[in-house]
Every structure is written in structure tokens, then in C-alpha cells.
Amino acid sequence: HNEIEGSLNEIRIVSTNQFDSYTYYEFTDTDPTPIQIKQWFGKKGAVYFLKADDTSFSENNIFINIKSYELPILKDNYEVNKYWTGSVSPKVTFSGNGSSGTLPFKVDYSGVNYYKGAVVLKGINYSNVIKTKLNITINANGQITNSSEENWFAENIGIIKTITINNGTEVEKNIDSYALN
Description:
4-stranded antiparallel β-sheet
């Protein structure tokens, strides 16, 4: 466990789901965020994806819905320092105050495997780890948000650590439990 800004942040793998016949692992996060988004990670071939569920929230009496989307967070067949880039544009709808419609929403990403090798984390030796970094730019109706996420993947285990940086604030999270309830 890591103490970050007085709060304990950990990730737990809580269930599995099938999407297009691929197994995805749902995880929960103890980090309090204003909008809770159900998330999974899964592997298709050599690519690991982070999948965000449909998300709905209300802001100033406007109801907003963002459709599910996924981003490639690791390409285990890529060598160190080889980049992948792309973008997704999930559908975003709004309604309220007598109007409704869609909003432009685009997520641009650039990822890289920046380390392959051994790691010691919380006293445990992992012999085959790939560390990735994903830079993300979200353009939500002209409002730009930049963030980055590092993920450490241990062979035959999955994600063992993440580091997220949003607006200059860094939050480190370790996998606490893989127990499926």
C-alpha cells in the first residue's frame, strides 16, 4: 500500500466479463473520484486494452452519457521505445434545460513500452515485467484534458502497479488483490 496525499490507493480485480469472446478483468479503485467509471483490462493477441464502461453523470442539470470505449495500453510484441498512437471518438449525448444532442469528444493516445526486465515491488521479485506509458489527450467539446498513465505488467500475472498523472498530480497504485469474489 502507498500513502499518497493522505489516502490509501489500491486496485482490486473483482470479476471477469466477456466482450466479443475475450476475457476482461474488472477492477475497482479506492481513489475517490467525482465520476465513478466501471473499468476492465483485457488482452487480444499481443495487445492489452483498458475498457471504460458507458458513463452517465449530471452537471448543472444537464444529463451527459459517454459510450464505452477502449484504449491499447500495452503491445507486448513491441520493442522498448517503439510507439503506438491513435484516437477514439466515443459518442457523447446530453439532455436537459430544454435541449439535447451530441457533443464532440475525442481521445488521442500515444503509448510506449519503456522498460522490459526484472522488478522488485513490495518485496516481491518479478522476473519479466514490461513498463508502459500512455499519454492521453481528451478533447470534450473544446475542453482539453491531458493525463498520462504508467502500467507495470508482470508476465502471467497482469498489472501490478499503475501511476496516473492528471493535471500535475501523481497517484501511485499497487494491485492489492486478485481475489475474484
